[in-house]
Amino acid sequence: MARSLKKGPFVDVKLMKKVQGAKPSSAGIIRTWARRSQVAPEMVGFTLGIHNGKQHAEVLVTEEMVGHRLGEFAPTKKFTRHGGKMQKELEMKAQEAEIAAAQSAKAAASEGQTKAPEGK
Q: pTM above 0.85?
């Protein structure tokens, strides 16, 4: 549910004090547990350590994040991929194809460097 416009955005008071008392370049990582706080325009450029229940996820705040909640940028659950043996085989084939493509590109680049341009 959206917050009333007359109330304004919710930003944790402690977090706002930390942000206002520092400069983005010299602040380092500002650790916070206030996942419900909204990103304010004053936070742009800071690196925030947002707690996800286990550790602090480092997030560099950009202009596109303003108005969103801090918790959106630090997921609390780790995704484990789906699939079993078949999925693993497909991933291995894709990885082998990627390695082969990288090796052929490297060989083509080194071949182009060894040949001298013909001319007067």
A: no
